[in-house]
């Protein structure tokens, strides 16, 4: 089977996971759940997103108080992992910090996207948009979330 790689640029929200989790309450519970579902960890070339996705795909409590406690414990005790390139053995590690201290990126408005697929493809893809595109972004639904920052996001995905 072939492999697919994609890259996407967008405007979105950046917030430290600890800041987001600690402000979960009954009012913003659904918004934060949505942010955690569509967001990903700002991660250069480590395995934080693999760990983050594994935690978020598990059985998560539906009560906002239990949800907050569960995620805080999971994000504080999980970080990245080390994958041995010779044996493929995976070892959990907190050498580069825990997820609780990482930043969550939540795309809000897509600007550009490109993808490539096939068997062991190498090369360059490209896509463009006229420079006069609208950079405004509506973050009204996130108004109750504190300590957020509006940022430009570049996401690369391989799978």
What does it look like?
- The chain is an alpha+beta fold.
- It has one domain (3-158).
- Helix content is 25%, strand content 31%.
- It is built from four helices and six strands; from the N terminus they run βααβααββββ.
- The chain has helices at 17-22, 29-38, 48-57, 64-77; strands at residues 3-16, 40-41, 80-83, 90-93, 103-118, 149-158.
- The protein has a four-stranded antiparallel beta sheet with strand order 2-5-1-6.
- Strand 3 (80-83) and strand 4 (90-93) form a beta hairpin.
- The longest helix has 14 residues, at 64-77.
Highlighted features:
159 residues, alpha+beta, four-stranded antiparallel beta sheet, two-stranded antiparallel sheet, 4 helices, 6 strands
Shape: flat
Query: How many β-strand runs?
Result: 6
Measured by DSSP, the beta-strand proportion falls in 25-35%
Count of distinct structural domains: 1
Which structural class do the helices and strands define? alpha+beta
Q: What is the fold's blueprint, element by element?
A:
Blueprint: E1 3-16, H1 17-22, H2 29-38, E2 40-41, H3 48-57, H4 64-77, E3 80-83, E4 90-93, E5 103-118, E6 149-158
Antiparallel strand pairs: 1-5, 1-6, 2-5, 3-4
A few lines on this structure:
By secondary structure, this protein is of the alpha+beta class.
